[in-house]
Amino acid sequence: MKIATFNANSIRSRLPIVLDWLATHRPDVLGIQETKVQDADFPREAFEAAGWHVAFRGEKSYNGVALVTREPPESVRFGFEDGGPADETRLVRAVVGGVAVVNTYVPQGRAIDHAMYRYKLQWYARLKRMFAAGYSAGQPLAWIGDINIAVAPIDVSNPAAHVNDPCYHSAARDAFLEVCAFGFEDLFRKHHPGEESYSFFDYRVPNAVTRNIGWRIDYILATPPLAQRSVACEIDLEPRMREKPSDHTFMVAEFGKQNGARPAPDSVPSR
DNA sequence: ATGGCACGCATGGCGTGA
Predict the structure, then answer these.
(1) Staple A200 to which of A2, A76, A209, A215, CB 3.0 to 4.6 Å?
(2) In order of start, what are the domains of chain A with their CATH numbers?
(3) pTM score, whole prediction
């Protein structure tokens, strides 16, 4: 099984790159963030013509998430259901091949003295409650997406220069780690301890990819039953080197067969 | 790396991203 994530920075602008990547890598599920398109204009037909299922929720210009799958997904739901802002264009979840998948576009935060930063911290707290209420660390569960945190110094170039950046500030790192305490393991770091690799490269930095100046802010996180099955997790820099790239690139994790064959009874999230 | 890019928009400069 393969699970992948990609912040597209406009799915319409990135359609050729996404369709090429899907055809080459054939993931079971690809979570996309920042589709930047309202649902009526989402290029659904292009995915379906290529044989993919796609579930999406977006808005004009901003945000937007999607799940692209080889098989029809089960139990697709958008947004929080906790009485706060649903943010349906930042959170989509489903069950794919017996694995629960939560795909998020966490708010970036703008600046640590901005209201959106407080909202970002609340977002992690809401995620923690959502996982605690609807899932178990004993079930195969993946939390994927643009999570907008470099969690350790090796996850951003020149970390000392970014201590007040909303994607590296200690309060946000702590809030992210609080969600991870539910039982998530960072699969890229599991397979590449100590490696300084990034998933985002600012357009404004010349030759950022070849100079390796960027951020690792996209993640594939897994609960123990799923993490134990992971055999690889890679950042694919090739799409970031193409013409008209996103500023992020793809990450993909591969999993071996589960022990036993059938999912645990609690593998479907409860309401 | 942060003046420098790219996105979408009832566009012709602006808000946003990270």
Answers:
(1) A215
(2) 2-255 (3.60.10.10)
(3) 0.94
